[in-house]
C-alpha cells in the first residue's frame, strides 16, 4: 500500500468541472468558487471548548463551493456531490429559517446563513453547489469545511469584510446554535488560517494565532491518516457529555473554564470521572505547549512521543477512543511510527501517525494486518501535508 498525497485539489480542472456542473444544475454560471480545507489536529484534543491550546493544520483535501447570488427572493437552493449517485439536493426559505428546519448536509450551509442573519447581515437568495475531497465522518472536519467555504463565499460576495477570527466565531455559532453540535473554535480556525508547511498554534480563549513551522516534506516525514471508517458525530451525546463534565468542573471551582483553573486546585473534590476529564485537559494543554517548543526549535521528530501520550490520555482519562482507534495507534507504533494518536472528537473517525516517508508501506501494512486480525472493516489510509487556508479557488 502506498498512501496517497492528493493532488492540489483546488486546481483548474476541479474548479472547471464544478463550474460546469453548476451551470448544468442551475442554468447559469456561478459568481465564483471558494475553497475551505479540512484539518488534522496534530495535538490538543478536547481543549478548544475549555479555552485551551490546540495545534491543528489545514490539509490538502478540501471543500469547494460554487455560489451565485440571486435577486428573485426565492429560496436558497443547494446541491452537492455527496449523493451516492448524482447530486444530492436541499433548499430552505430565508424568511422561515430556524434551527430544526433543515436536516442532513444542508444544515451546515443553512447554519451559516442563520448565523449571518442573527448578526444583522442581510442575505439574499443564492444557489450553491458543493464538492468535497475531505472524507465524511473521518474526524477531519468535513462539516466545518462546508461551513467555512460557504462563509468565505458569502463574506466576499456580500462585501461583509469579516476577518478570519470573526468568520471562525460565526461558523461556530452555526454549528452550536443551528446544527446543535457543541463544538469549539479549533476546526474553523484551522480551515480559515492554515498555511502551507505550517501548523496553527491557537489560543482558544483569546483566538490569538501563531504560525508554527511544520516542514514535514522537507524533513522526510509525513502524517499518515488512518480512517477507521467508524462514523462519528459531534451532535451525538458522548461529545456533549464530555463538554458538560468540563463545564461542571469549572463551575465547581468558580472559574469560567478549565483554562482558568488555579494551579493549586484540589482536584480530589471532584468525582473520579470528572477528575479524570480535568486531568486530561490540563495535561493536554501542556503537551501542546511542548509540541510548539520543539517545532520552533526544529526538533520535529520529538513531537512523536507527545502524540502517543495524548492518545493514552484520550483513551484512559477522557474515554473517547474506541477499539478501532486503539488498534490503529498500536499497530502504527509497532510498525515504526514516531508517534500516533486519535484525532478529532473521538468515538470513531481517524488516527494519525507521524512517520518517516520511507516507513509508510511498513506502517500501513501493520495497520491493515491488525484490523484484519480483529475482524474490523479495512481502514482507508492516506498521507496529508499542511496546506493553505480558505479563500477563493
From TrEMBL:
GO terms for biological process: galactose metabolic process. One of its GO terms (molecular function) is galactokinase activity. Residues 294-372 form the GHMP kinase C-terminal domain. The keyword Transferase applies. Its EC number is 2.7.1.6. Residues 21-68 form the Galactokinase N-terminal domain. Keywords: ATP-binding, Carbohydrate metabolism, Cytoplasm, Galactose metabolism, Kinase, Magnesium, Metal-binding, Nucleotide-binding, Transferase. Residues 109-194 form the GHMP kinase N-terminal domain. It is an enzyme of class 2 (transferase). Signal peptide: none annotated. It comes from the Bacteria. GO terms for cellular component: cytosol. The keyword Zinc does not apply. Belongs to the GHMP kinase family. GalK subfamily. PANTHER family: GALACTOKINASE-RELATED, MEVALONATE KINASE/GALACTOKINASE. This is Galactokinase. It comes from Arthrobacter saudimassiliensis. The lineage of its organism: Bacteria, Bacillati, Actinomycetota, Actinomycetes, Micrococcales.
